[in-house]
Amino acid sequence: MSAARDEILGRVRAALAPSAKTERSRVISRSYRDVTAPADPVSLFVERVADYQATVRLVSAAGVADAIAAETEGMHCIVPVDLPWDLSNAEIDDFQSNDELDTFDAVVTGAQVGIAETGTIVLDHQGDQGRRAITLVPDRHICIIRTDQIVAGVPEAIAELNPQRAQTWISGPSATSDIELTRVEGVHGPRRLVVLVVY
Amino acid sequence: MSGTFVGMPAFPSAAREALQDDQLRRNLANATGVIRTKRAEVVDEVDNWEELRVAGAAIKDEVLLHLDEYLIELEASLTAAGAAVHWARDADEACQIVGDIAADHEVDEVVKVKSMATQEIGLNERLAQRGISAWETDLAELIVQLGDDLPSHILVPAIHRNRDEIRDIFVESMASAGKPAPDGLTNDPAALANASRLHLREKFMRAKMAVSGANFAVADTGTLVVVESEGNGRMCLTLPEVLVSVVGIEKIVPSWEDLDVFLQTLPRSSTGERMNPYTSTWSGVNDADGPQEVHVVLLDNGRTRALADEVGRQALRCIRCSACLNACPVYERTGGKAYGSVYPGPIGAILNPLMKGVGVDEQTDSLPYASSLCGACYDVCPVAIDIPSVLVELRTQVVDSHRGGAPDAFGAAMAGAAVSFGSPLPWKTVVLATGWAGRLSGPLAGRVRSSALKNVPGAAGAWAGARDIPALPKESFRAWMKRTGGQE
Amino acid sequence: MVTCINDAFFPETGKAVLRLLQRLGVAVDFPEAQTCCGQPMVNTGYIDEAVPAVRQFTKAFAGYDAIVTPSGSCAGSARHQHKLVAERSGEVGLADAVAEVSPRVYELSEFLVDVLGVTDVGAAFPHKVTYHPTCHSLRMLGVGERPLQLLRAVRDIDLVELPAADQCCGFGGTFAVKNSAVSTAMGQDKIDHVASTGAEYLVAGDNSCLMHIGGMMSRQSTGVQTIHLAQILASTKVMAQ
Is there a contact between C13 and C230 (Cβ–Cβ < 8 Å)? Predict the structure, then answer.
């Protein structure tokens, strides 16, 4: 291909030549995964999400629609095409432009995985979560996750997720520590994050 | 536009100047103190931290020792996922590639995700020469850019600024770069963060092209990973039509599963959080979601030189968390600018000489000596880079690169030491002499007292500027042993 | 190994080690052929210049069961750096000699606690004291709590905690002169912390660090004395009634 490619690969090989070259092993000790699982991942998840100054509440399957309605009352909402709950006041994602997305107050989505240890929700942007922009531009994100989607830690999440899909890992609302290393919630991403955990 | 590090003085003089700045020292002591405490708390709650460190080091070593194979694998998987792969031998070539892509799309501005690689190659300045504005969107980078300043920390480039200074920079400079600061802006961090939200939102909305780096590049899936906090990264990675990522060739991890180490160790080491607010991963182009044209520039720019150093190559494990900066007592007092590079602190003190080579310029050669070898950096490093050992190795290379010429003062002193300590007799004579000196009194004693240090001109002054020289004993230990046989 | 600095500048520390070990029933020898461990040269980048010192070290200390030194950094140098120096020298037999000698080098508190198995060495020291863990004993050797265990067992001692104790004092060997401004800025914070404890004595396991801290305290007339750990452990001074 390019001269640059050949030269860089040549430099790498020259740099490594004096070292005894071993086969690519890919054998890494994974003993770091041997940790005691949390006794109650759901409670831990709720506690850790709350630590980030996000709003988090447990709701029953029957109560989800009401909980969403309460969180979005009076708001102009956008939802992904396959959100399994109906919102009377919502528009469905139809590839609105970035400027149009900026006019919505809130977005309501599902999630793919929740991580108890770190209080993280992971979106892989399937039908109930929508393309990446809809969960980014509106200022309020209401994310609904089922208890059976919550795993103990990062290794369990990585094992479940498909790297071919674009992912967004979300741990609390947008934040910065750039001013005197003091954490401030709310910069460019949604400034309010509401997580509804459905049991 | 930000300034440049070109022509910085060697570390000791830059450090001496930085130490005069009381405001800087207060800001740094406060900030590094806060982050050290936060890091310690979230690291302590992980039972298997040592295993994670060992695994992180092993994964990175595996890649480094087979880097040619992993690069070819990454290129293939990126291409299969729809990304265009470019190779850049040095900064010039990388800047040229990014500038050409911008020119192809006829854009006159790009939005940028915070990226050490693009800072290293001076991309913003090079794009400016081609009439393209590169807008930094990370809050700290924005502060540096608007303040026409230099970065002083890997994670928080404006760590040297306090809230009052940041307010003044916003009020003064936002208008010339776009949306002005809100009227009556206060120094409240939340208000300052909101000012950056308002200022940058119009840029995100209209940007056609974004430039990012990557924290990790997964060889077998072609996945790139960006770890961030504010959402500016998500904006840049999602909204524009064209995305160019400049990725150092050492950023590779073999497979997706390896991320389960680094997504645990990086946030805890970096910001002292269990997890950073946002992590984005993408593999090439995603159908109807995000940029439909994706480029990846694989950057060498001295990395292969570092790779050739068998002791120093471990520095390429670095995941840019900056825990070593926050832990370093030297960094805490001088700040990052004294290191004269976008990579400051302990990691910068090894990475710069490894990437640029020693024996070429005085500034780079001074960096391995910018450490008391206290070892705090090694303790906190999430990929177990033995920075003190690499510093000592690089000092040896600096010394060796100057051998053959006239020895400097330290060289002469060390040659003397080689003789003094090489056999018992010369050393006995030295010790005997200090004993005589100790029994002298009056002005002569003071003169003789510092004779040991006088071997190194300037050293006596450097020592005695702020410290008294210990009073010499009247009798050395060995003389006492000889006289008494060890019986008191 | 008394160390070159102690031999020439701090003989009282050497005498204290001797007295202490003899009190504990150890047969102690002082090989006169000892010079320096080579650390100043290695840490400044002059490895070739360290070869004669390392060679001399292996000659002087061959054949002993344990080589005890009142210095964390000299012990660290012998245990971690001599191998490097020997390998680079390419000198026949030197690497083997180092491999033979260096594992038997102990910092004083390691020898007392790990080898002799004592923490109460029968000392008495009726003074207010604060302890600074030197970097090389703390991080390179990992002596941990050992010096504090030994100090806590000393009669009549008033041991007070030093704030930010694990922070480097700024000595760093030739760093103290090559980057003297940073070195003394670090030292200033250390002596401010020492002063805040109200201690009469600052104790540590390394006279080189104490020479730097003590030099600054003396210049500023803080009234706090420095003392080596060995001297407190050797002391049997009882409280004046």
Answer: yes
Nearest chain B alpha carbon to C55: B422
DSSP A99-110: HHHTT-SEEEE-
Q: Are residues B298 and B383 in the same domain?
A: no
Question: Same domain for B142 and B50?
Answer: yes
The answer to whether residue C221 sits within a structural domain is yes
Tell me how far apart the alpha carbons of residues B367 and C178 are, in angstroms, rounded to a whole number.
11
**Tens-of-pLDDT digits for all 199 residues of chain A?**
589 999 999 999 999 998 766 666 667 889 999 988 899 999 999 999 999 999 999 999 999 999 999 999 999 999 999 999 888 879 999 999 999 999 999 999 999 999 999 999 999 999 999 999 999 999 999 999 999 999 999 999 999 999 999 999 999 999 998 888 788 888 998 999 999 999 9
Parallel, antiparallel or unpaired: strands A192-198 and A55-59: parallel
Task: Kindly state whether residue C122 falls inside one of the protein's structural domains.
Answer: no
Give the CA distances from residue C172 to residues B425, C49, C166, C226, in Å, rounded to whole numbers and listed in that order.
Answer: 28, 19, 14, 18
| Domain span holding position B428 | 409-484
Residue B203 and residue B236 share a domain: yes
Residues across chain C: 241
- Whether B7 has its CB under 8 Å from any CB of chain C: the answer is no
Contacts of C35 in chain B (CB under 8 A): 420-424, 427
Q: For residue B46, tell me if it sits in a domain.
A: yes
**Burial of residue C197, with CB atoms counted within 10 A of its CB: 0-12 exposed, 13-18 middle, 19 or more buried:** middle
Are the beta carbons of A64 and A144 closer than 8 angstroms?
A: yes
Give yes or no for a contact between B198 and B98, defined as CB atoms under 8 angstroms apart: no
Under DSSP, is residue B227 helix (H, G, I), strand (E, B) or coil?
strand
At a CB cut-off of 8 Å and minimum separation 6, what does B106 contact? none
User: Where does a domain end: C65, C83, C115?
Assistant: C115
How many structural domains is chain C composed of? Answer: 2
**Stretch (H or E) spanning C202:** strand C201-204
Selecting from B411, B421, B486 the residue whose C-beta is nearest the C-beta of C30 gives B486
Are A196 and A144 spatial neighbours (Cβ–Cβ below 8 Å)? yes
Residue C142 shares a structural domain with residue C101: no
The answer for A 11-50 residues in CB contact with B (under 8 A) is 11-16, 18-19, 21-22, 24-26, 28-36, 48
